[in-house]
Write a sequence for this structure.
């Protein structure tokens, strides 16, 4: 225990008996046991807290990774949407320019028949 051998513990007990006396020794031993128990409990609590913090750090890293993926997907979606809007506006502009440049003559209706046309001599 704590790197102490049996003889060292025996020497400490003899010194404790001499200083405390046989009537105060049992209460001192109880107080020492309570102290070591509270230290052990505190160390356990600190260990649990550190494990929880490490777990929270891992969860935070995962959340940041998901956030990064979502931002990339959002940027990709915005880029594709902008390309679609640009394509639509280009199509609309081209159609408008074509209508301004060459106004179309009104379409003449053709009569569809199944009669043979006379051959033209050249």
């Amino acid at each position: 225990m704590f790197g102490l051998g049996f003889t060292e513990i025996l020497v400490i007990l003899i010194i404790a008996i001499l200083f405390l006396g046989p009537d105060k020794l049992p209460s001192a031993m109880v107080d020492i046991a309570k102290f070591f128990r509270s230290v052990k409990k505190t160390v356990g609590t600190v260990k649990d807290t550190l494990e929880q913090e490490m777990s929270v750090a891992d969860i935070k890293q995962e959340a940041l990774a998901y956030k990064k993926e979502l931002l990339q997907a959002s940027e990709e979606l915005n880029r594709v949407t902008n390309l679609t809007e640009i394509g639509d506006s280009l199509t609309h502009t081209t159609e408008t320019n074509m209508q301004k440049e060459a106004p179309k003559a009104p379409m003449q209706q053709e009569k569809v028949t199944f009669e043979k046309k006379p051959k033209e001599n050249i």
DSSP finds two helices and no strands in the chain. The chain has one domain: 8-94. The chain has a mean pLDDT of 78. Residues 8-94 form one domain.
